Amino acid sequence: MRKILFLALTILSLLLTACEQPKDNAINFAIATAPSSLHPTLASDAVSERINALLYRPLIGFDTEQNPVSEVVEWKMLSQAHYQLNLRKNLPSFSNGQHPTVSDVVATINSVLENSASPHNATLAHIKALALLNQEIIDIKLSRNDPRFIEKLHLGLAPAKSLKEKNRLARNPVGNGDFNFVRWRSDGGLVISRRSDHQLIHFEVIPDPTMRTLEMLRGDTHLMQNDLPYEMYDYLTKNTNTHLSTSTGTTFSYLGFNLADPISGNLKIRQAIAYAIDRNAIIQHLFQGQARLANTVLNPKHWASHTGLQPYEYRPDTSRRLLESLGYTRQKPLKISYKTSTDPFRLRIASVLQAQLADVGIELTIHSYEWGTFFSDIKAGRFQLYSLSWVGIRSADIFRYIYHSESLPPNGANRGRYQSEKVDSLIDLAEISAPKRAKNYYQRVQQQIHDDLVYTPLWYENNLLLSRNIDKASPRSDGGYGFLNQVVLRHD
User: Fold this and answer.
1) Domain that includes residue 111, residue range
2) 46 lies in a domain?
3) CA angle 252, 253, 254 (to 5 degrees)
4) pLDDT value of residue 2
């Protein structure tokens, strides 16, 4: 069977013609979707944020325990509602040759405050006053106490002049990160250049995983991360000189519900669905063990994570009893729709979910759409069930963004339309509390949303990085592309 598959892929690879191949000295990185925006404070999809992290240096970074560290600015907390920032010395210049100034920092923060479409807008909305005291110090006053305000400044720095032209900046990024933007590719990808040695990286957009595999077989692709059927990793490493590196991941996958819908908004129905899903079987057979069970959006190593949540285990009999209490049986099944992307692996997961739910008397109808349409429907609330992932979560501020009632779209990512005065109050209290007390509040938030089953938590997916003729390629736990700072193209 493997020989037949190899022969078929080889024949197809000979027919495959890439629309734009990099030069011999460039590294080709195949990705599944194109970045939608390279604006540092407006991008919201995972691939855009990962590429932006290469192009823009953040005001504030995070250490391995997700505590804030200085990158562009240093800070002083005068009170829990009063902060001052100053620019670090010897920062690299922007790609246009301009040196960063405190005015650029002010403009970067204002670009968030002045645009409700920014995913950072809600978390910075309590900035009451932002002013330059002199050419070195920025003064920030808040409308409420926030002892962890500095965490919210994980924003890519851009020149003030460029930020005034937000549409232009989204297509022609100007940052002072470790890479410079070179140009867009005809396939929707882009070319960037590493500042340290001018190594070119081509992000080539290939939506179909089979085609990405063929590119690797041909040797035209040097790097791929995730987004492949898991049996393909084994096949490529055994049949080519492709190397696989893995790391435990923090990407949180979940099943989302529309709580404004009369069916998916019913707690007993959400519980019946959660108890009908055999997550262990999916991890074992579809992910081939390359995932871990998850119970909350924050990974277990995060300082605010609640590691004691009782998991929704596979209990099909409990699921059937819940459905029967609502009048649903095998003869009269519950009918519900599920939206997902056209990615073949996500469709395989959807098919398994469909079969598992059918076993307890739930008729799941799968609707798949190309990414843009799918994501637009989710943001607009046009769904009953869907599945997505939260990528690279660093700050506990994620709870306001995805669970607070003030974060209903377009003001945030509370896409399930969840509204709870208790959770709102706990989030508000956590945000004005010192870390030790905030942790208690955030754990109570996690307990409540777990009990309310806003999401059915699924798993944290491992990061799998395939490399060919590349040295020093090692994936990061957050799935970011920071490893590109070290990779070396090997000429065998």
Assistant:
1) 54-171
2) no
3) 120
4) 44
